[in-house]
User: Fold HEAT repeat protein from Gimesia panareensis.
Amino acid sequence: MKFSDIPFPDAPDGSRDPELWMLLTQYEFVRWLPDDWPDEYREITSRLKQETDRLTAAALEESEPLFRSRAACFLMALCRESRLDLILKFLDDEHEFVREQVARHLVSIRNPQLEGRLVELATLDAAADVRCAACRGLGGQEPLSVIPTLIHILDQDHESGENGWSVSSCAADALDEMLGTEWMARRQEGVCSLPEGSPNPAAVREQALFYLQELQERQPDEKKSDRQSDSETD
Assistant:
């Protein structure tokens, strides 16, 4: 099949930028199959990178939540922390689907302001799916500050969203991923590794508390080392 023969859906009624909708729709298709459509992947990605103004307008002004979320997530991947103002606006979108998608993608962007907003979403948003996604985003933030929040959610929030996952299980997944990345990056002892399938909440909780204690105990030594380095520099 030729790429031009693929029946991509038309833009939603009332869309302000049907051409951009089509580019984003095609991008969502080829980004999962870049080896099957390498030329199309490069061309579509290159074109979208040149359309930051149109993407911003779509993410903030289009009426269709799917359109807004796709534009927002591409912009986040492209601009990252350089457009915190935009990301925070995306997290305040009126539609839960947009908040969910944006929060989920923040696992790859670590920033204190975003972390604070993710904590709010994970603990206070009315939609369980958004709280789940915010847990996912928190899994990429600073462990020392977010582990207590994730443990609290694991213990307390057992509501399930439309996706079928409980918020508690999403918190366990986030902690499990954090332990499998942060822990292993700092300690090369094979203490913890990501298991196949869903994590055991009780085991993840125990390991997270142990890791948190280690981080807290390490803080004075790290601060002392920083002060020594500053003194040597002066």
